[in-house]
Amino acid sequence: MKNWILDLWHRSLDKQIEKGQLERQRLQETGHGIQKTPEEIVREYKKKQEVRRNIWVGIAVFFGFVWAYNYVTNPNGVAPTNVSAPAPIDTSWIPTEFNSYSDDPNVGWRWLKSKEFSCTGDSCWGMMIITKDGCDRSLYAEISILDKNEVQIGYTNDSVSQSLPMQKSKLVFNTYEDEANTARLSKISCY
């Protein structure tokens, strides 16, 4: 590869010398030329080549500095953003025995104890839900049913009509799945 580049450079130099000789010859024939020796022509050509090389080196160094600056100031390559942290969710209104529902800051919930509700299916779970601002049309909840290996085997749901602000609503989830063992909250929607 290095020899190929040197050969290319030498051929370019030879062409430049040949062009210089032709130009000198043309100028001598017209009487307008200044006599230059081949050594002077080669020296001028090398000087021009050095200037061109220095320009390319300067461009490469400039882009190298730009890259290094960007890498040092931002090593992950991700532009910094001015995104502020989300405002903390106000959970002060939720009674202490309730959990906040992460998908809706208007909702608090808790599992009911078995003595707090009655069952009509093979297995059932109860849930108490409270809403800060109420639900104008409906309050809906859905749970996933899991077997003893924590494998989801189904779901069940329950709903109540309009829920007033700070009103507690009791939902009971019944299932006839023989393998039902535990349940997991899937979704609460306040419409």
Provide a short characterization of the protein structure:
By secondary structure, the protein is α+β, with helices and mostly antiparallel strands.
Q: Please tally the helical runs, counting DSSP H or I stretches of 4 or more residues.
A: 2
First CA to last CA: what distance?
73 Å
- Describe the main β-sheet briefly: 4 strands, antiparallel
Total strands: the figure is 7
CATH topology tier name of the largest domain: Immunoglobulin-like
What share of residues are in beta strands? 25-35%
* Protein structure class: alpha+beta
Q: Fraction of residues in helices?
A: 25-40%
The overall average pLDDT, rounded, is: 87
Shape summary? rod-shaped
Q: What's the gyration radius in Å?
A: 41 Å
Identify the strand order in the major beta sheet. 1-2-3-6
As for the number of domains, it is 2
**Low-pLDDT residue spans:** none
Question: Based on the structure, what is the oligomeric state of the protein chains?
Answer: single chain
CATH top level class name of the largest domain: Mainly Beta
CATH architecture type of the largest domain: Sandwich
Taken in chain order, the helices and strands follow as HHEEEEEEE
Keywords:
single chain; 191 residues; alpha+beta; Immunoglobulin-like; 2 domains; 7 strands
